[in-house]
Amino acid sequence: RNGTYVYSLPGSITTATIDKVDATQYAYQVYPNPASTYTKIDFELPVNEIGTISIYDVAGTIIKSYQVDNTFGNLVVNNQDFKSGTYFYTITSPTVRQTKKVVVIN
Length: 106
Fold this sequence. Notes:
Low-confidence stretches: 1-8, 14-19
Number of helices: 0
Strand order of the largest sheet: 6-5-8-9
Radius of gyration: 18 Å
Distance between the termini: 45 Å
């Protein structure tokens, strides 16, 4: 939880302020869904954070991975090399982790 906490060990007092980021405030959209030739991923990360968007198949194998930041706010993925099926797109940064599902039809 956000707030200021006081931790005490014998002989000392330490104060720490913790600001937890609410990951739900950051948009993450995957479309079109179902997709064929491409998938567009719109995202927003906290300021100055670098993240990774990883694409997994249903077996949990990483198909592709991209390093992202807020420079453009979106990523277009070419799906032409993907087999038809269900895939999961996960965006991960130091304070955000969200996963979306997309169906690819080729």
